[in-house]
């Protein structure tokens, strides 16, 4: 299904993914190198989604500086203005389509400012890629520019590389589960401590939490790294170039019985443990029961999913285990994981494509932009992904591991029942 432009786009831009990545680092100031409107839109977008203040600054390129400035002046002025008011541990510098088209040398600008401010730079043009690639490119840059290789590794030090679709509570649950096996776990980035909706003492100008820069710099002795989601596979491989002694394990998703089993098997085999913690075993039995309880509702329904590739893969895998029929899955960009999504048809498309096949489904799983389509065609929608502008508690939605998969199946089954009663 090909067309020369998008109508009612599903795709989000690379700079938006980069912003979220830098917000997972403590006392970081994300700096968008582009026009002021780009940063303003992104700030409002995520402020509405998370219902919390979002830290971001911009180089505010205008029609004059776009012509006469090679980027150095705008960036240095922005850094000077930022450091006059706050003292960030790190500035995350990322580009937009405007400054990429200009050809600004952000690496050179960063080198010129290295004695004044610690900066990580990343090229994230919004005319290619999307939310997932913007996040993963930023994480790869953080790894290559901040982490110092060490001669030895600590086998109990684990680096977790979550993808952009994982909510703050999901990152926290994954960290807690890994810690049960005796690991010291560090998530990079760690939005579970910055975008989780906690009530701080005051509204800060910098990111309110996350992994500390000093902790990132000391990650060179990590003995094991786990990347979650196809978009993060290359980040795990990037870390292995920094620390060749590390063991890298990759998992495409963490929703549903099978993928969660594989996740715990990695941890148990690494630690040579034969029996999982009782907490884990109990939740596995609950998920088995949830699959039985929800099978008749989910298995008799037709469900269409429209979201980021890694999220669609994870959701489809989980609900397919309960017998879901998924005639279509819509993703915004090309990804190696697309061919493994458990749907009859996986389409790189937009919301118009979804609306064109709307009569083939009973339930839609998508973001807030799918809500209008659902209401127009009298379908029910389960909101997932970015954005969700009306609901509160988006950072607390949990679809991962045995526990979250139970909640996912129950929510979907109850939605199907309520939809049938209403229609």
Please, could you describe this protein's structure?
- The chain has helices spanning 14-22, 36-50, 65-68, 72-85, 97-102, 106-112, 131-146, 168-179, 213-217, 233-242, 257-271, 278-299, 309-320, 351-356, 371-376, 401-422, and strands at residues 28-33, 57-58, 90-95, 119-122, 154-161, 184-187, 222-228, 247-251, 303-306, 328-331, 345-348, 363-366, 380-383.
- It is an alpha/beta fold and 423 residues long.
- The protein folds into 3 domains: 14-134, Rossmann fold (3-Layer(aba) Sandwich); 154-276, Nitrogenase molybdenum iron protein domain (Rossmann fold, 3-Layer(aba) Sandwich); 279-422, Nitrogenase molybdenum iron protein domain (Rossmann fold), CATH 3.40.50.
- Strands 11-10-9-12-13 form a 5-stranded parallel β-sheet. A 4-stranded parallel β-sheet has the order 2-1-3-4, with helices on both faces.
- Helix 13 (309-320) links the parallel strand 9 (303-306) and strand 10.
- The two termini are 31 Å apart.
């Amino acid at each position: 299904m090909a067309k020369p432009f998008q109508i009612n786009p599903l795709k989000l831009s690379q700079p938006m993914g980069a912003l979220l990545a830098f917000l997972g680092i403590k006392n970081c100031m994300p700096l968008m190198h582009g026009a002021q409107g780009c940063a303003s839109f992104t700030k409002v977008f995520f402020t509405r989604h998370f219902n919390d203040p979002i830290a971001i600054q911009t180089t505010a390129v205008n029609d004059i500086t776009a012509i006469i400035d090679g980027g150095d002046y705008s960036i240095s002025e922005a850094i000077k203005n930022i450091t006059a008011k706050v003292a960030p541990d790190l500035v995350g510098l990322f580009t937009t389509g405007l400054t990429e088209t200009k050809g600004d040398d952000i690496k050179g600008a960063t080198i010129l400012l290295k004695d004044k401010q610690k900066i990580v730079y990343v090229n994230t043009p919004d005319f290619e890629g999307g939310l997932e690639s913007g996040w993963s490119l930023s994480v790869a840059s953080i790894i290559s520019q901040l982490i110092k290789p060490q001669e030895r590794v600590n086998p109990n030090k684990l680096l977790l590389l979550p993808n952009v679709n994982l909510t703050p509570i999901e990152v926290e649950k994954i960290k807690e589960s890994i810690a049960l096996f005796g690991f010291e776990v560090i998530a990079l980035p760690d939005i579970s401590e910055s975008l989780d909706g906690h009530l701080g003492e005051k509204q800060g100008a910098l990111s309110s939490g996350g992994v500390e820069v000093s902790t990132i710099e000391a990650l060179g002795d990590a003995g094991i790294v786990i990347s979650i989601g196809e978009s993060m596979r290359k980040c795990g491989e990037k870390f292995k170039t920094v620390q060749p002694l590390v063991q890298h394990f990759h998992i495409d998703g963490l929703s549903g019985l099978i993928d969660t089993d594989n996740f715990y098997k990695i941890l148990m085999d690494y630690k040579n443990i034969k029996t999982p913690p009782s907490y884990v075993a109990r939740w596995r039995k609950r998920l088995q029961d949830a699959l039985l309880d929800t099978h008749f509702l989910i298995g008799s329904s037709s469900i269409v999913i429209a979201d980021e590739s890694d999220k669609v893969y994870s959701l489809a895998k989980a609900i397919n285990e309960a017998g879901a029929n998924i005639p279509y899955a819509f993703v915004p960009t090309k990804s190696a994981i697309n061919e493994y999504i458990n749907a009859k048809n996986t389409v790189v498309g937009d919301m118009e494509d979804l609306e064109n096949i709307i009569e083939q489904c009973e339930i839609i799983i998508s973001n807030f932009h799918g809500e209008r389509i659902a209401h127009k065609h009298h379908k029910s929608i389960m909101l997932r992904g970015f954005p969700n502008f009306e609901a509160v508690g988006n950072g607390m939605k949990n679809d991962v591991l045995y526990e979250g998969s139970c909640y996912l199946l129950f929510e979907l089954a109850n939605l199907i029942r309520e939809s049938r009663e209403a229609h």
